[in-house]
């Protein structure tokens, strides 16, 4: 195992300490164990607060989206493990500005169970909580079971739109409604070429042959929908965008999209652009306009080699909210 | 070779096309082969223009630093190969706003030779050109040969300060002077855990044992100063920062620095923060204040696993210039 680590048991602690030391003007820890981080100016009065949480090992997910114009707080789990109810509740209390809290998190059983319990406890304290659960991964379940799909990189769009809407002074119901709209309009699918290694385990979390790829693999190495010989970048790009469009087209018209090409950890930035090129041409040929593009690392899986593509079907409201500025430790938009 | 590519001969073309398609509001191509990119609003009148260039395979280097508040143009070579004199000259002509052009590039023989020739040719056309050659890599040559050192990730600071100074309306001589100050005040050193694979070659560019690391390795796999068993993150962090400080302390006092922890391609973001944590504590213990931190991918080597650390010794002038905003396809500062 070749990693820049000390004792694997200290990995999350040391990572969190580094992030806090590097971002003293952006982030604040609200727990002695640093398992809850909030915006430096939290709670923001008279604004709906947006909260997320999830396991470590996916930076910039989840805590990396806390910041101005973005999330108010994140609760932080161990590597690939959900955070606790208490951590979620602590973050909820720390960010509530009197207008309620929206939980936005990925559809994984541990996260769902704990966020639901945290929401109940917060309500007993008089904090109104609503939730939107990201389910963008078309590779994780067929269309007829889309409620059971996992959340992956497309959650970035839920974060962005929810946070922007909250910043406009909208109510909790209004913020939830537009976030649900995003949830219905964003789809993702990934492809993996090599596994990752959890520091505490010390060996790869799955195996892929020397010339193999797996389409639809999840960000924890969950099985995908097709394993086969690695294709050309163009063929891979096309198969991913076709899978997303087929799924989206079944219930909505698509004229203009935002595209996110996300590296899973070890994929060179150059290759993400090679793939984006083909996606752009494919969309153009279908008469679909590309409004705004995000390319880089948005939701990783430690050093996994691979990428995911997300498309968000846009309308005028979403375009305006997508354009609003934000500033986080990993990404800034003016 | 597991890569998202098509024909390896098309790798740079397709990457450039993807970058241009993704950044229509930021970048403009000035050559049919896209081997010269400039700011969308170039030439900027009455401003010294800053130009760089170099081989592909190092994104965000080199072209990724073209943008508002940053570089005016970049000439683009094949993977790990210098760009041509003609490409450099074309970029120079396209960005000259009447106040002259500063070339800022890394100390590699092909780049030096071609930029020197391009400067001569530009001068014959009446464009005044000055140059600053980045030599920040303390791992590449001992102190007594520091003029022969290679340029690595520390060139980010030369770009940032040169561009900010030019944006203030300073003259070519003033911009060159402050860029030389940065060149004398920034030092870097890298450590590699695994090699990269050039698309056209198809196999790793060097070999490292299963438990080995190499301190001081360059971003093209140039030999470093020490190969050995991989150490803990803390020990590696300390040895890198000590090597830099020993070199810097020989000719200047150090009270406040900016730190850049740069991933070489495959290193998880989490690990960069684990390493930063130790660097921060080491500097603090030495009474050195950290002013501003940059952590992420700033100068890569395709999918090489490794990282580099750069320290810039700051004074008030450099702090002010470092804080000025910029917007590029890969990094934005408000």
From TrEMBL, chains A, B:
Q: Which SUPFAM superfamilies match?
A: DAK1/DegV-like
Identify the residues that the record assigns to the DhaK domain, covering every copy.
Answer: 7-331
Source species, domain of life: Bacteria
* EC class: transferase
| UniProt key word Cell inner membrane | no
Q: Name one GO biological process term.
A: glycerol catabolic process
Enumerate the InterPro entries for this protein: DhaK_dom (IPR004006), Dihydroxyacetone_Kinase (IPR050861)
Q: Which UniProt keywords apply?
A: ATP-binding, Kinase, Nucleotide-binding, Transferase
UniProt GO MF annotations: ATP binding; glycerone kinase activity; phosphoenolpyruvate-glycerone phosphotransferase activity
Task: Cite the EC number.
Answer: 2.7.1.121
Coiled-coil portions: none
GO CC terms:
cytosol
Protein name, UniProt field: Dihydroxyacetone kinase subunit DhaK
Q: Which organism is it from?
A: Metabacillus arenae
**Primary gene name:** dhaK
